[in-house]
Amino acid sequence: MKKILWIAILAVLITGLVLLAYQRQEEGSTHEALQELMGTIVKIKAHGKGLSRGRFDEVSRSAFAEIARLEKEMSEWIPESPISQAARFAGQKAVPVSEEIIAVIDLSLAVSRQTGGAFDISFKPLGRLWRVEKRKEPPRKEEIRDALRLVDYRNITLDKERRTLFLKRPGMAVGLGAIAKGYAAGRAARKMAEGGIRDFIIDAGGDLYFSGSKGAKAWTCGIQDPDRKGEQLIRLKVKMDCAVVTSGDYERYFDFQGRRYHHIIDTRTGYPATGTRSVTVLARDPAVADAYATSFFILGPVKAAEIAGRNPGVAFILIDDRGKIWRGGPIDEFVEEESS
Question: pTM to 2 decimals?
Answer without folding.
Answer: 0.89
